[in-house]
Design a protein that fits this description.
94 residues; 39% helix; mainly alpha; 434 Repressor (Amino-terminal Domain)
Amino acid sequence: MSNSNGHCPNRVRELRENRLMTQAQLARKAKVALRTIHSVEKGMNCRMDTKRKILLALGLRFEDKDKVFPPSRPGSLLVPSVGEPESGDPLLPR
């Protein structure tokens, strides 16, 4: 599913908030601009290197990129998750 701007959603905000981090803290840790974090959380596309920096700053591996930044496929709809995340979600802190 896309947001109102037609951009694909990602899980950056969800994962950042679960780690009790502000956008500024994530930007500092990832060594990217605050506006970059803001744009990424709004669903704007970014370079692969920026995704890598954000993933590492969140304590994730680059291999987890498709779980955080779902690949966009023309004509496919991404269904947002509703309610609480599953307890077995490896991306959420325990």
